[in-house]
Amino acid sequence: MSALGLHLWVLYALAPRQALGDESDYLERGSWADPHRPRLFLRVPAIPSLVRLVARVSPSPEASLRRGGALLGAASALLVALAGLQLGGPLLALLAGLFMLLLVERVLLSAHLWPDGLLCALHCLALHLLQFPSSTGLAVLLGAVAMLATLVRIEQLALALGLLLVMGWREPSQILLLSACLLVPSLLALAIWTLIAKRRYGIALPDTTWLFNLRILHGQVSDPQAGPIRVQRSIASLVREQRAGDASAPRLTELLGSLPAVLGSMLRRLLACFGPDTFVSGRLLPPMGKAYPELSSNRAAPLALMLRWSFPLMASLTLWSLIVVGRLPDYLLAAAPVLLALIMVHFRSRYRLVLMPWLCLAGADALLRIEYQSLGALHWAGLGLLLLIAAVHVRHPLIVEHDGQIAAPPRADGSES
Q: Which pTM was predicted?
């Protein structure tokens, strides 16, 4: 009940009132006859279908979707607590659930219409299911969860691979059966959607958003000296290139470049993935977010501080605990391909919500296992913690989704700084 109360308080007391970035696109699709019709991108079908369904049954789709997000946020904390109960008992359940509630970034984003809250809930469900004994039925359930996540955002195909790693580690003799249960549903769903997209829109891909993300990552985010990334301008430039007859999909050599540059940029994005939240500095969330007209300035500052640093602190605590204990739980294997997909394809801090349930349970479990440790173990743990603290200073360029995010005025010649 406390989890539900916290998420409802965020929804009603802070009252996010303005759709930002992709939120506007999702809401508009609810009124379209074909919610999947690509305007700039073709998306996998789950979110457009969900918004269209809610628009049909609710007189206020946006309010209904935000209430649903709050309920999913509360359910996420409950599922992680249940996973802790299965794994280690009531104390672990309490601590893991508390960690989820202390992640202010996750709680605030649950009141928004981005798909990250839904994906986080699906990851929490997968984490909970992994605490049950291995069986074919469990693999089928996990395959269904991974398929839903993939149809919400395409890089979540990595979750299916991660779940296969865990289940294959536990039951190596059943790897072919597990592959059929865990991978085939997601691949089949994407194949069917690709055929539909080809017939309807002439696009032989299940999703094209990741192509744009790769182009941005290669051209701008990977450059430590990059200035503000203006999303709409970047989209328009990419569309112009495609209409001019350039390759509709970036060439692999163009995207990746030399191997050292690739590894360097991926390492930088990996460090930034565990760094401070970027939505505060990007003026998309408090204290400068336009979506929160009811948020007073005296509440905005401490809230922004907690929002910006709750995840880095939790990640630091989890890393320190795991190093001291000296063991990684096998269920963390499921998060490894997801993390790799995020640093390859995505670059905004909200995408890391899917990592939070895995880190909260692993960190809580490791903390409860810490007893007497040798000085050597603590020394290396301290070194790892210092490295992570250094990592939080790695910043991405500002990603601009609307003009209100930029304080500097345009130059006299009409160009933007």
A: 0.85
